[in-house]
TrEMBL record:
Its EC number is 3.1.1.31. Hydrolysis of 6-phosphogluconolactone to 6-phosphogluconate. Gene3D superfamilies: 3.40.50.1360. It catalyses: 6-phospho-D-glucono-1,5-lactone + H2O = 6-phospho-D-gluconate + H(+). It holds the Pfam family Glucosamine_iso. It comes from Bosea robiniae. It comes from the Bacteria. Pathway: Carbohydrate degradation; pentose phosphate pathway; D-ribulose 5-phosphate from D-glucose 6-phosphate (oxidative stage): step 2/3. InterPro entries: 6-phosphogluconolactonase_DevB (IPR005900), 6PGL (IPR039104), Glc/Gal-6P_isomerase (IPR006148), NagB/RpiA_transferase-like (IPR037171). Residues 14-215 form the Glucosamine/galactosamine-6-phosphate isomerase domain. It is an enzyme of class 3 (hydrolase). This is 6-phosphogluconolactonase. Keywords: Hydrolase.
Length: 228
C-alpha cells in the first residue's frame, strides 16, 4: 500500500528549493545526531541547482555526509552533461572538500563493467537515508525511462541499472529497489506539465510511468512542486 503523499506547493522554484533544503537539513541533523553519518542521494539535470546551493549553506557537519547522484550520464567527469559536475559546482561543501561523494564516473570505459564496480561499491553502503529525486516531463526518474522496465526490474536487484535512452548517452542509474529503500523520499519538480504527469498517475492503470514507483512507495513521498 502506498504511504502518505504530501504536496508542498510554491510559486517559484527558488522558494521550493529553499524549503526542500530546509527539510533535508533538518532530517540530516537528526540522522547525524542519531547515527553519526548519513547517505543522501540527489538528482541531476537542471532543476536541483538552487536546492543544492541552498542546502550547502546550512551549517552541518558535512564531513559526516556522503552524497551520491541518483543517476549519471556515461560521459567524462568534466563533460557538460555530467550530473556530478553540476552537483559539485552547486553544492559548496563538496567543492570545499568537506563532504564525501560516491562518483559514478571513472569506473572504466565499458558501461557494464562500470555498473558492476558500482554495484559492488553500493553493496558496501547502507541504504540511502534521504532521497531527493527529479523527474523528466516523460515521467522518468533518475535514469529509469518509460519503456525500459524490463531492464530496471531485473531480479535479483543489483542496485544499478544501465540505461540506453534513444538518442542520448547511455547512463547509470540507481535501481528502483535502491531508490525505494531510502528512509525518506522527496521529488523536486517545476512547471504545470510535470504537475499534470503527477496528477494523472491514478488514470495510468496498467501502463505506469517510472515516477509511479515513487508515488506508490510504501514509505510515502514529499513532492516539492513549483509553478515556474
Ligand atoms: O536526465 C535527467 O533528468 C531528470 C530531470 O531533469 P530536469 O533537467 O528536468 O530537472 C533528472 O532528475 C535526472 O537526474 C537526470 O539525469
Amino acid at each position: 500500500m502506498a504511504g502518505p503523499l504530501a504536496w508542498h506547493r510554491f510559486a517559484t522554484l527558488a522558494d521550493a528549493s529553499e524549503a526542500l533544503a530546509e527539510a533535508v537539513a533538518i532530517r540530516l541533523k537528526d540522522l547525524l545526531a542519531g547515527q553519526g553519518r548519513a547517505l543522501l542521494a540527489v538528482p541531476g539535470g537542471t532543476t536541483p541547482a538552487g536546492f543544492l546551493a541552498a542546502l550547502g549553506q546550512h551549517d552541518l557537519p558535512w564531513e559526516q555526509v556522503t552524497l551520491l547522484p541518483t543517476d549519471e550520464r556515461f560521459v567524462a567527469a568534466d563533460d557538460a552533461a555530467s550530473n556530478e559536475r553540476m552537483i559539485r559546482a552547486q553544492f559548496a561543501p563538496l567543492a570545499e572538500g568537506r563532504a564525501s561523494f560516491l562518483s559514478f564516473h571513472e569506473h572504466g570505459s565499458d558501461i557494464e563493467a562500470a555498473a558492476a564496480v558500482l554495484c559492488a561499491k553500493l553493496a558496501e553502503l547502507p541504504q540511502i537515508d534521504l532521497l531527493v529525486s527529479g523527474m523528466g516531463a516523460d515521467g522518468h526518474i533518475a535514469s529509469l525511462f518509460p519503456g525500459a522496465e524490463a531492464a530496471f526490474n531485473a531480479v535479483p536487484d543489483s542496485g544499478i541499472v544501465v540505461a540506453r535512452p534513444p538518442g542520448l548517452p547511455p547512463r547509470l542509474s540507481l535501481s528502483p529497489a535502491r531508490l525505494l529503500g531510502a528512509g525518506w523520499a522527496s521529488l523536486l519538480v517545476s512547471g504545470t506539465a510535470k504537475e499534470a504527469v503527477l496528477k494523472a498517475a491514478p488514470e495510468r492503470g496498467q501502463q505506469p510511468l517510472p515516477v509511479d514507483l515513487l508515488l506508490g512507495s510504501a514509505r510515502g513521498l514529499d513532492v516539492y512542486w513549483a509553478k515556474e
